[in-house]
């Protein structure tokens, strides 16, 4: 979705001399994707980003998945997770495959280190809590409902405000962008898109640090977590410009698409990545055909797994889901409204539900660490009451 942006001080032309007040050169860094054929930004540092004191292997971070089990619908009560760490160390993976992992994090403590994911882009959805993201591109403040898109290779840390905070975390091995059908050939969001560039929040201010000491950057790469220690503060950028940077879109700015009869899930799409999409279910008016059935019909995702994370409200087609519930409906298996929900929805004028949906086009596996959060009665919850 990117559009050109610039912050701080930069020279008039790229790859030319750019000097500090004392006459020495700033260090230019080109940060790009797809081997210089994708989007990129150019950053100018007080010191070279390669001035590393030492590197250490910290720990493996591969996800341990459950053994093969019966194919069934799954429900995880993530509100029961009591981990109270920071936004990275506190991530508990629920589901994952070769393309994406889906985790929750109770982010209550500020990170006392910096982090960069070198495997792919990240998407942090703020369920509740406020705080800020301090990054090499500048500082972004976050509030509940924010989607925070962080490009691969970005050095950042999460600093929550006092009090509880919770994130839904999507980690990829690729990229995250806006759906192609919402953009013209120049990349501008079209008139029928459910949001536009005015809804995007960019870094608010560029804070340039020149402190020296020993600064830790934890780097994720290929299933392992590494420690890199630098003499210079990692956020020593004096200016940058380009198309690659972190940004925020709030789910409250998603304008729902409605119709006379029930509309399919793609109308809720908000982002896409390699082999997955992210959708936003927001408060909206229901269908207005006189005989419309507002509740979703039974359907089979014959080539995608469907994950729903319930944020708040009364989800119209489900019973027994709570705030923080996460459901998995595997590909090839029909799913739909629980008993009584179709009739209960007739004549309703609106829904106040808020949820995030993630559809993946390769099967998801359940992480071992999620099993203790599972509602084992969910697969049989469609049986009529006796």
Automatic annotation (TrEMBL):
The active site is at residue 262. Keywords: Dioxygenase, Iron, Metal-binding, Oxidoreductase. Fe cation binds at residues 299, 305, 335. One of its GO terms (biological process) is L-phenylalanine catabolic process. Residues 82-250 form the Homogentisate 1,2-dioxygenase N-terminal domain. Its cofactor is Fe cation. GO terms for molecular function: homogentisate 1,2-dioxygenase activity; metal ion binding. Homogentisate binds at residue 335. It holds the Pfam family HgmA_N. One of its GO terms (cellular component) is cytoplasm. The keyword Oxidoreductase applies. It comes from the Bacteria. Belongs to the homogentisate dioxygenase family. This is Homogentisate 1,2-dioxygenase. It comes from Paenibacillus albus.
């Amino acid at each position: 979705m990117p559009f050109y942006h610039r912050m701080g001080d930069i020279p008039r032309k790229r790859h030319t001399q750019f000097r500090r007040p004392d006459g020495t050169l700033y260090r230019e860094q080109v940060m790009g994707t797809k081997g210089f054929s994708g989007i990129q930004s150019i950053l100018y540092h007080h010191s070279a980003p390669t001035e590393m004191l030492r590197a250490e292997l910290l720990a493996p971070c591969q996800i341990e998945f459950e053994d093969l089990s019966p194919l069934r619908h799954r429900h995880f009560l993530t509100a029961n997770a009591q981990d109270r760490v920071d936004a990275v160390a506190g991530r508990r993976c629920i589901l994952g495959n070769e393309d994406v992992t889906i985790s929750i994090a109770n982010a209550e403590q500020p990170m006392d280190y910096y982090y960069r994911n070198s495997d792919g882009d990240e998407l942090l959805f703020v369920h509740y809590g406020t705080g800020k993201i301090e990054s090499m591109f500048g500082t972004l403040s976050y509030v509940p409902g924010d989607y925070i898109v962080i490009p691969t290779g970005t050095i950042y840390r999460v600093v929550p405000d006092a009090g509880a905070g919770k994130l839904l975390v999507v980690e990829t091995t690729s990229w995250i962008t806006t759906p192609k059908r919402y953009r013209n050939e120049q990349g501008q969001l079209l008139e029928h898109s459910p949001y536009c560039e005015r809804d995007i929040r960019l870094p608010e201010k560029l804070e340039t640090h020149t402190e020296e000491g020993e600064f830790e950057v934890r780097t994720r790469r290929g299933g392992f977590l590494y420690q890199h220690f630098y003499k210079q503060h990692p956020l020593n950028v004096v200016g940058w410009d380009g198309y690659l940077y972190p940004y925020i879109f709030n789910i409250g700015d998603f304008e729902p698409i409605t119709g006379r009869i029930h509309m399919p899930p793609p109308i809720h799409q908000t982002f896409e990545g390699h082999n997955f999409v992210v959708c936003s279910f927001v408060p909206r008016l229901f269908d207005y055909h006189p005989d419309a059935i507002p509740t979703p019909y039974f359907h089979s995702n014959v080539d995608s797994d469907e994950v729903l994370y319930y944020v708040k409200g009364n989800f119209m087609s489900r019973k027994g889901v709570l705030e923080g519930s996460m459901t998995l409906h595997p590909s090839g298996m029909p799913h739909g409204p629980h008993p009584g929900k179709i009739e209960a929805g007739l004549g309703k004028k609106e829904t106040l539900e808020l949820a995030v949906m993630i559809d993946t086009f390769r099967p998801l596996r359940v992480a071992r660490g999620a099993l203790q959060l599972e509602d084992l009665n969910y697969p049989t919850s469609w049986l009529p009451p006796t």
